[in-house]
Amino acid sequence: MWENVVPDIIDFRTDPSHYRHWRVEYDGDIANLYMDVDEDGGLFDGYQLKLNSYDLGVDIELADVVQRMRFEHPEVKVVVMQSGKDNVFCAGANIRMLGGAAHAHKVNFCKFTNETRNTFEAAEADSGQKYIAAVKGACAGGGYELALACNHIMLTDDSSSSVALPEVPLLAVLPGTGGLTRVTDKRKVRRDLADVFCSIEEGVKGKRATEWRLVDEVVPNSKFADAVQARAKEFAAASPKNAPEKGIALDPLNRTIAEDGSVTYSLVEVAVERDGRRATITLHGPDGDAPADAAALTALGDRSYFLRLARELDDAILHLRLNEMELGLLAFRSQGDAAKVLAEEKLLFDNADHWLANEILQYWKRVMKRIDVTSRSLVAFVENGSCFAGMLAEVLFAVDRTYMMEGDFEGDNRPVASITLSQANFGPFPMANDLTRLETRFLGEPERVEAAKEQIGETLEAFDANELGLVTYAFDDVDWEDEVRIFLEERASFSPDALTGMEANLRFAGPETMETRIFGRLTAWQNWIFQRPNAVGEDGALQRYGTGVRGQYNMQRV
């Protein structure tokens, strides 16, 4: 079914016909989502996914479920996440997998799972789809983190059902997908009780779980199934969502990967330059006119411009993260008609109250956030013939630097390089810090955001874009090639570890939010701990897990 599937790469494209770990039963405006992991369905050899534990393959399916819930089943108002197995909700990330995985895979695995949880956590606000976690059986580690990302947690009151974050005492690591942060920032568990909770292996059950704010309600086991469905119906009835009767189909992405690693989609091209350790991502503008109205947009289904572009760019970023780890720099460029880009965008904003237009805008927000937290050097080149306008211009403010061509270039007949701002750059697509990218860029100079806003709709060539602070450098025909070459060579010579730390710190200026804490503070500590002998050494807790022998620790505090 998938075109040009290359052996030995991690493929993020899937659909329900390929699921091995999840199933969904639709009942009007309620969807029952069952986690029923195939023990023998691990992404790699060497471990079994026992007790509903998960690896990246399980989460790739979950991400697809959540995405299709929004586009293919917009009639859904409540999603009940539950286990398809007896006596266990989810045991979290598979420990054997973590113990045997390379550090880079563990880090990217945790990043993707964080993004997936953020996506269904925000589904109520963005799409009117509320998630309930119906916890029956053991719910530990990443299993409880799945529940924490839901909007409402119900726990059955019996002898075996509990919630737990046992990573510190059991594995010498941290909960890898936001558990600590959501316990304090979202659940608002008292600090000393959170300390106790995160220091015990057995977890917390029943009434104490509600008293400590770890779950929203506890229900006797004999009444649990009925209570869950009753709560789902109650939430659905109270939902203000004006749901359509049906959605659109998300057909498989057509993607071709060449022998040199370059990737081609319909609107996105990724050129791989292994010697320079970089990839150039070209975004193409629309190849036709914008739909006339929301009905025409719906008729196009997944072939509309921004939905197609978002899906392809999303897949390209994920592919590069997991399959091309030696490529340390991603360069963005665009080619096309900026006026057509703005026409496609105008249709979406003019119909923002239409379910499909809203979903496309929300998806673009998620793709931009995916770029924000990608641990590669990011640069954009605004060249002649580019179409960085409105929503596409957001890419320019997500990258670490932007270079722009200035004036005519000899032998280049393309339109002179320009940038066009729109309403898209001033609110609809906030970063994790809840600021726009321009507000973050001009954190100490808010008046410059207002100056830029006054230029909405204007075609800004290099001089004006540079004066407004929208680009880092503008170079003419004489200097362009040398300046770009010097930058690329310099960046390739730096330590990738130092660059990752520097870039992550510089990108998220301004206020701290739960999201920035998850991707910044918690992730940074986890990534460090993932390399420490106490966790991953020969006698570390991850390596000794399941042997009956506890990890041997170097007790020096660092």
How would you characterize this protein structure?
Helix content is 41%, strand content 15%. The chain has an 8-stranded mixed sheet with strand order 10-11-12-13-14-15-16-19, sandwiched between helices. The protein has 23 helices and 19 strands. A hairpin with a 3-residue loop joins strand 11 and strand 12 (268-273). The chain starts with 21 loop residues before the first strand and ends in a 14-residue tail after the last helix. Helix 1 (56-71) packs parallel to helix 3 and helix 7 (179-186) packs antiparallel against helix 21. With 558 residues, the chain is of the alpha/beta class. InterPro entries: Benz-CoA_dihydrodiol_lyase, ClpP/crotonase-like_dom_sf, Enoyl-CoA_hydra/iso. GO terms for molecular function: lyase activity.
List the helices and strands and how they pair.
Elements: E1 22-27, E2 30-35, H1 56-71, E3 78-83, E4 88-90, H2 95-100, H3 103-121, H4 123-127, E5 130-135, E6 138-140, H5 142-149, E7 152-157, E8 162-164, H6 167-171, H7 179-186, H8 191-197, H9 206-211, E9 217-220, H10 224-238, E10 256-257, E11 263-264, E12 268-273, E13 278-284, H11 294-300, H12 305-323, E14 329-335, H13 338-350, H14 355-372, E15 377-382, H15 394-398, E16 401-405, E17 419-420, H16 437-441, H17 446-453, E18 459-460, H18 462-467, E19 473-475, H19 480-493, H20 496-507, H21 514-529, H22 533-536, H23 541-544
Parallel strand pairs: 2-3, 3-5, 4-6, 5-7, 6-8, 7-9, 13-14, 14-15, 15-16, 16-19
Antiparallel strand pairs: 1-2, 10-11, 11-12, 12-13, 17-18
Helix pairs in contact: 1-3, 3-21, 5-7, 7-21, 12-14
